[in-house]
Amino acid sequence: MPEAWFTDAFVLWGSPTSWLELVAFALALAMVGCNIREIHWGWPLAAVTSVMYFGLFWRSKIYGDAALQVVFAAMAVWGWAQWLGGRRGDGCLLRVARLGTRGMATAVASGAVLWLCIGLFLRHQTDSDVPWWDAFPTAVSLVGQYLLGRKYLENWLAWIAVNTVSAGLFAFKGLWLTLLLYSLFAVLSVVGWRAWRQRLE
User: Fold this and answer.
1) Strand, coil or helix: what is 12?
2) Cα–Cα distance, 172 to 175 (Å, whole number)
3) 27-40, pLDDT tens digit by residue?
4) Distance (Å, whole) CA 112 – CA 56
5) CA 50 to CA 59: how far, in whole Å?
6) Between the CA atoms of 63, 68, 74 and 76, what dihedral angle is there, to the nearest 10 degrees?
7) What is the pLDDT of residues 174-187, one digit of tens each?
8) Which of 43, 99, 199, 201 is 20 to 30 A distant from 4 in Cα terms?
């Protein structure tokens, strides 16, 4: 990624904000807006945004979130294909659905196991100063991304948890514009939950 992307666009609350962070901020908001409205163009926006946030997070030593962006970029291709032509087990095209009790239990258990594994890796294999706080949004985001790709309503609950914890992490790191973004994401996740729930009624 060109070094020019990391030059300061402005200073926010005493910390410099790079052009990379500024552009990623704008694209990420557009992506979530597409997701709420079930517009498939949110997925290519997600891929581009993920590449940009990889560079930003890696430089800030938030390695879990940085690695997650690589996975997100790959999953964006899968998610786009799902929204364009994915089907349920009964052969019907994807539309908003609920997980059910068993599916919810599986999602929570998957997030917990991923959190433990990623947290242990970051603690012992990297110089991260926030291994467990970094691991939580990384783990739950993987679950949320899968649920979003399959149009399960509960993806928004995962994003509410991810965005709330991430906001605290970015505040600690002084990434103020990204903190603002994830605070907006938390609000938009509630909006997304309500909008998708209405489609089930």
Assistant:
1) strand
2) 8
3) 999 999 999 999 99
4) 26
5) 14
6) -140
7) 878 788 888 999 99
8) 43
Please, are residues 182 and 18 in contact by the beta-carbon 8 Å criterion? Answer: no
Compute the radius of gyration of the chain from its Cα atoms: 17
Q: In Å, how far are 6, 15, 60, 115 from 169, measured between CA atoms? A: 20, 15, 11, 15
Cβ atoms of residues 190 and 26 within 8 Å: no
**Cα end-to-end span (Å), the chain:** 46
pTM of structure: 0.84
Neighbours of 43 (CB within 10 A): 23
Cα(165)–Cα(111) distance, rounded to whole angstroms? 14
User: d(Cα 20, Cα 7) in Å, to the nearest integer?
Assistant: 8
User: 83-108: buried (b, 16+ CB within 10 Å) or exposed (e) per residue?
Assistant: beeeeeeeeeebeebebeeeeeeebe
d(CA 26, CA 178): 10
Q: Which residue has the tokens 């909008």?
A: 195
